[in-house]
Amino acid sequence: MGITWKSAAVPRQRDLYQAYFEDPTTTAARFPGDPREAGWRERRLAHLDRRDFARPALALAVAGYNASVGASPEALANARALADDRSVIVIGGQQAGVLTGPLYTISKVATVLRLARMAGEDPAEKVVPCFWVAAEDHDLAEVDHIWLVDAAGSLQRVGLALSDSVRGRPVGIIPPGDSPSRLLADLERALPPAEHRTWVLELLHETASSSRSLAQWHARILARLFAGWGLVLVDPTDPAFARLAAPTLHRFLERAEDLAAAVEEGTRAVRALGFQPQFEPEPGHAEVFLTDVQGRRVPLFRERGGFRVGRAGGPPLDRDALLGLTSPQPAGLTSSVATRPLVQDAVLPVLLQVVGPGETGYHAQLTEAFERFGGAIPPLWPRMSFTVVDGPIHRWLERYQVDFAQGLPGLRERLAAILRDREDPGFAAALAQARASLERHHQAILQAATRLDAGLGGMARDGHRRMSGELDRLQQRGEKVNRERQAVLVRHFRQLENHLFPLGRLQERVLNVVPWLSRYGPAFLEWLVEAPPEVDHRQHSLLLL
Predict the structure, then answer these.
(1) How many whole angstroms separate alpha carbon 442 and alpha carbon 464?
(2) How many Å separate Cα 183 from the centre of its chain?
(3) Residue 90 host element (H or E)
(4) How far, in Å, CA of 19 to CA of 432, rounded?
(5) Which of 384, 396, 382 lies closest to 528 in space, CA to CA?
(6) 545 touches 140 (CB < 8 A)
(7) Which strand (E) or helix (H) includes residue 406?
(8) Is 287 helix (H, G, I), strand (E, B) or coil?
(9) In whole angstroms, what is the distance from residue 129 CA to residue 226 CA?
């Protein structure tokens, strides 16, 4: 199969992500560890050498978790390698979503694997590819469904049927129950026939049946899909890992005011550069969550030297009581999206961090927090960003001369332009002229024929009716042909929109990977991980198949 990567500019509002990767001088103060600068690797390694990581316990915890989700021998070997002081990590992460969520989850994993391989060319260090499974997240509405394009070219939502009682709980503790079976049945009905359809559906059924939680299902799918590349998964809610992260979370509580001041300072600095902060610090929020006895994840707020559970009316807790409550059960405390990078930096020897626009924004606001808590922002590198263009979508893109760089507005404008060009006023005008001529000549013929013979007059009237009827049929047939041509065109463009810009967004932010796995099998992942070096992660690309 022919595979082509083609750079494709996409219109986007200027933000920190674009500024950092296109003009780093404007954001240098927020990202001191730019991996494009000479000597970045040596400086980062020197920083990591000065840090004290609990490597034997880390390796044991991560290897144990990966074994529990069916990781490959290559992944387990990489996990155990974390015990070595020379090992470092390339890491990315994402919320644990149904069937891995939008396509950009897969692009993050592929980027981690690509960068780990390139960074691992130096034999002095062991570079381990890691992916952070954000199982502590509790925003179910964001992760309980996927989108795909069905056999008819329509956009379909396939989701879990979860009870309201599990809302607010981390996905790492929500049991799947029989909901995956219903979801997979819906998926089978929506998924178009394809060569590898049976393989991918069997993989999804097998991983679902052996998973204790929605997050574990997510992890098992990733472990199976990327088994050959040795991907190591990290789940912050795993008890062994949570014990390693607990001291950092406790420090956040012990120095809650200091953390809040650092985050506020970073937020002001981002705004001073002319950018919108990725998040607005909530007054009093400790940026730490507590999982309560009902399993709900609730935020902690600073209050009178202690804390309050929840935003309003929650019970107060003094610091000592809270630390004592969570010490034997460290999984009860979890980071917020703002403090997650700080926890990663404290527990893991991160050489390089794979980011999207959101993560870049979070890191930009945390420069001071990293410094005050003994760390440093890791060097950041953008995830792969691409749109898959295959099958009829590829043909129509070329046939209709659609400029992908113009986005959804350009696609719709192109459709309108083609519709205007296909209007044929000449056909209608010719018919109108023929009718006028028929009527004009019919009267003269009718009068002359009637004068000659009454029977001839009747024949003239019959001939007029037949010719008028033929013109009517010709007009109806022409209108039908035009409608059919226009309907085919509109249908093609509707499918182009559903594939390229579903819900008005880039494909990678909406559609799930399963249809491409069904069509191309494991080879699809190989095309991403083994993409040629000239594929620039800083730019959007088209993967033409």
Answers:
(1) 7
(2) 20
(3) strand 87-95
(4) 60
(5) 384
(6) no
(7) none
(8) strand
(9) 11
**540 touches 385 (CB < 8 A):** yes
Contact residues for 439 (Cβ-Cβ < 8 A; gap 6+): none
Phi-psi category of residue 307: left, alpha or beta, with phi > 0 → left and psi -120 to 50 → alpha: beta
| 3-state percent helix, strand, coil for the chain, nearest multiple of 5 | 55, 15, 30
Residue 89: strand pairing partners = 128, 350
Q: Which backbone phi and psi does 128 adopt, to 5 degrees?
A: -105, 125
Cα separation, 273 vs 472, in Å, equals 69
The predicted-structure confidence for 79-135, as pLDDT tens digits, reads as follows 999 999 999 999 999 999 999 999 999 999 999 999 999 887 777 789 999 999 999
SS3 label, residue 404: helix
CA distance 490 to 487: 5
**pLDDT tens per residue, range 450-477:** 777 767 767 877 777 888 777 778 766 7
DSSP codes of every residue in 362-422: HHHTTHHHHHHTT--PPPEEEPPEEEEE-HHHHHHHHHTT--GGGHHHHHHHHHHHHHHHH
- Give pLDDT, residue 328: 62
pTM: 0.89
Q: What is the CA radius of gyration of the chain?
A: 31
CA distances (Å), origin 375, targets 207, 383, 513: 37, 23, 36
Q: CB under 8 Å to 107, separation ≥6 — which residues? A: 383, 384, 385, 386, 508, 528
Q: What does the pLDDT read at residue 534?
A: 87
Specify the DSSP class assigned to residue 292.
Answer: -
Reduce the DSSP state of residue 521 to 3 states and report it: coil
